Every structure is written in structure tokens, then in C-alpha cells.
Amino acid sequence: MARYATWRAGGQAKQFYSPADREDLVAFLRTLPPQEPLLWLGLGSNLLVRDGGFPGTVIFTRSCLLDLRRMEDGSVLAEAGVACAHVAKFCAEQGLGGAEFLAGIPGTMGGALAMNAGAFGGETWDVVSSVVTVDRLGVERERGAGDFRIGYRQAQGPEGEWFLAAKLRLTAGDTTQSRERIRQLLAQRSATQPTNMPSCGSVFRNPDGDYAARLIENSGLKGRCIGGACVSEKHANFIVNTGAATAADIESLIELVRAEVAARHGVNLSTEVCIVGDKSSVRGEINSG
């Protein structure tokens, strides 16, 4: 899984499935055993697959769910495999405002919907009017934003459904101004985050009334390393792979940071990153669908 995760670390998956198209994906879901663990994967940011691998099926949405278009009603349809940055640029070209912040999210729309990803003061579900989901039986449903409980870095909806697409409601904007806003945001991101090194994005959620990065930096943890994993000197809420980090290195450093911040500040940091899989070694071939 190291090939598909932005941390460039992680063990094997039992089965890796890359759909030919949406119809192929729906048909495949119907063939899976009811209890088969599923991991939906886009760009692989905000994800740590342990070294023992994932004991189930990885569904690679970046290969097929790539539809992005303006609808007749003026909304924008973005399927789950489309990169958020691409959505931001498309909306700008369409003369629509309000999606510029998506340029700062290093993932796809599917992941952004699942965790209500945010950047530069904007959050994904701020611009979502409805979504299309699919369940294990391949049944697709259109649901309104009101069907989900949205919070900071979380979106809770019907059990056993995953996102296929979202419809975005945006305001009339100016293409030139939106382009410039995106340029400014990307420059800010490059100046403040270690975008040139493998990471998952922000590791910890910000606690109420504070910032995880401030707490980590004030705990003297910038530059702290375990194996090939290090707390970034550029942004303390990023853990970077300096070249040879294992998933175990990264997870151990996450736990060290949590323990130090709790001891020094009495704050228990919650992880934003999704950690999955087994710590022990998994044997067997990857079945690439």
C-alpha cells in the first residue's frame, strides 16, 4: 500500500480492486462477502496502513469515479475520485466562487466528504447540497445534506453506505479573482507546510480553542524522530517520512506526540488520520482487480 499512500509507507492489502467504471464497481460490490472489510482509497492522504497490511479489499476510486461537470441547474457534479484541487480549479473556470479552499485539500472528493475535510477556513460540506451513495448490494441512493450529521472533521450518515459523488452549490464568482485566490492559497500552503516531503497532511485535529501544531511545538517536539518518521520542522502537525519510515515508525511517533502533549498541557489530541490494518506481517499476494 506504500505505492498508494502519500506517507509512502504501509503493508500489503489482501485484495486491491481498480474498477473499470462505475457500473463495474457496482457489480463488484455485489460479489463480495457481507463481512469483507472494505477500504475506499483515493489519493491516499489522511491514511496510514499498518505494516501488517489490510486484511480486506481496497477499492481504488481514483481510477474510475472521475466525472466532473456543470449541471443544467448551475450546480457542479464531482465524483468521489476527482482530486479536490481539480474541483477548485474547475469551479473557478466556470465562474463559480466558494470552492477555492478545496485547492488546499490533498485528497479526493470521496475522502473530503467522509471526513468533512477543510482548509483555509472552508469545509467540504459547506458547499454540498446532495450526494450519491452506494451500499454493499450495489444500490445507489441520492441523499440530501440534511441526511448527515456534520461536524469538525466528521460526517456521519446511514450505516454501510459510501460516497460516489457530490453535488456542489456555489455562488456566482469571477474567474480571475478565483484563480488569484487559489494561487494565494497554494503559495501559503507551500510556505507553511512540508509539501515536498511524504506526509498524510495534518495528523491531529485541533482541540477546541487551540491548535494542535502550537501544542506540539510548545512541547519541544519539532524535529523529533522515530526511525524514518519525524515531526516536521516546518509545521508541527505534520509527520514526514524522511525516506525509510515504516508505518510502525509513524504510529509510534504519533503516540509519542500524544503522550508528550498530554503530559505537558493536559490535552488529549485526537488523530485526524485514519489508521487501519494489522501490526503483524500479512502473507499472501495482492489480488489486483
Automatic annotation (TrEMBL):
Q: Which cofactor does it need?
A: FAD
**Localisation:** Cytoplasm
Keyword terms, alphabetized: Cell cycle, Cell division, Cell shape, Cell wall biogenesis/degradation, Cytoplasm, FAD, Flavoprotein, NADP, Oxidoreductase, Peptidoglycan synthesis
Its Enzyme Commission number? 1.3.1.98
Tell me which residues make up the FAD-binding PCMH-type domain: 9-173
Q: Give an example GO biological process.
A: cell division
* Biological or metabolic pathway of the protein: Cell wall biogenesis; peptidoglycan biosynthesis
**Name of this protein:** UDP-N-acetylenolpyruvoylglucosamine reductase
Point out the gene that encodes the protein. Answer: murB
